[in-house]
């Protein structure tokens, strides 16, 4: 990379149907091709793009092994489009645990980095865990194109990840989300919803100002409904 170079990044914000792995991947492929046609050198996709997102045990049904559907797609589409492409998926590992991992493929179709979500957010802790020691899976991926920082949803609020970015000095940050705007109800008072929604809408700019580098915010679109743990 070079201090004065320009990198074009595409953020694919799409609706991801729960459990429709093949359909979501086909849709993502169309958007990646469109982004490439508009000059994108890096394309970032939403958190848990292929599986969709739900806060119940159902999400385990859509977990993948390494080099499963999502990473195979990333390798194939990045080579086809000659650009970097990244997305997260729910990984099922031999230790019996589930992890949220963001994988990045380069423009030759090689996986060049995997970033594990450091801490689950709230109820996510019921369904996947963090990977320790975290230092073995840093949030910064060195590439010939740029030094790329990756922050998965809730990680954009964590001081530990911010500190890693401060020390690692990425040149661009990819922030992949699966976070809905909250609607007031019995479990979510209006004031809490307003605070959460404001934070969600402004966090990309906050992260960019803190670290002094461009931050590409990518979230899903469409409505979202989910059951909650413990009878919420």
Characteristic key phrases:
232 residues, alpha/beta, 9 strands
Shape, please?
globular
Oligomer: single chain
Using only CA atoms, what is the Rg?
17 Å
Q: Pairing-aware structural class of the strands and helices?
A: alpha/beta
DSSP helix fraction: 25-40%
Number of helices: 4
Q: Low-confidence spans: pLDDT under 50, at least 5 residues? A: none
> Strand-residue fraction?
15-25%
Instruction: For the largest sheet, list the strands in their spatial order.
Output: 1-2-3-4-5
Record field, number of beta strands: 9
Main sheet attributes: strand count, strand direction, barrel closure: 5 strands, mixed
> Strand-and-helix sequence, N→C?
EHEHEEEEEHEHE
Description:
It is a single chain. This protein is α/β, with parallel strands linked by helices. 27% of the residues lie in helices and 20% in strands. It has a 5-stranded mixed β-sheet with strand order 1-2-3-4-5. The radius of gyration is 17 Å and the shape is globular. The relative contact order is 0.15.
């Amino acid at each position: 990379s070079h201090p004065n170079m320009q990198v074009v990044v595409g953020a694919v914000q799409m609706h991801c149907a729960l459990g429709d792995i093949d359909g979501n991947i086909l849709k993502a492929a169309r958007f990646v091709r469109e982004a490439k046609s508009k000059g994108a050198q890096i394309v970032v996709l939403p958190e848990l793009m292929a599986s969709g997102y739900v806060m119940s045990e159902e999400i385990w049904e859509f977990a993948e092994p390494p080099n499963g559907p999502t990473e195979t797609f990333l390798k194939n589409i990045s080579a086809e489009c000659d650009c970097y492409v990244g997305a997260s998926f729910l990984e099922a590992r031999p230790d019996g645990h589930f992890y949220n991992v963001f994988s990045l493929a380069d423009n030759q179709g090689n996986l060049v980095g995997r970033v594990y979500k450091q801490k689950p957010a709230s109820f996510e802790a019921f369904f996947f865990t963090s990977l320790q020691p975290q230092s073995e899976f840093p949030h910064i991926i060195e590439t010939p194109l740029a030094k790329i920082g990756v922050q998965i949803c809730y990680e954009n609020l964590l001081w530990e990840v911010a500190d890693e970015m401060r020390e690692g000095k990425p040149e661009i940050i990819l922030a992949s989300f699966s976070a809905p705007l909250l609607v007031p109800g019995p479990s979510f008072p209006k004031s809490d919803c307003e605070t959460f929604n404001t934070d969600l809408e402004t966090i990309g700019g906050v992260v960019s100002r803190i670290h002094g580098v461009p931050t590409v915010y990518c979230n899903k679109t469409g409505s979202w409904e989910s059951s909650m743990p413990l009878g919420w």
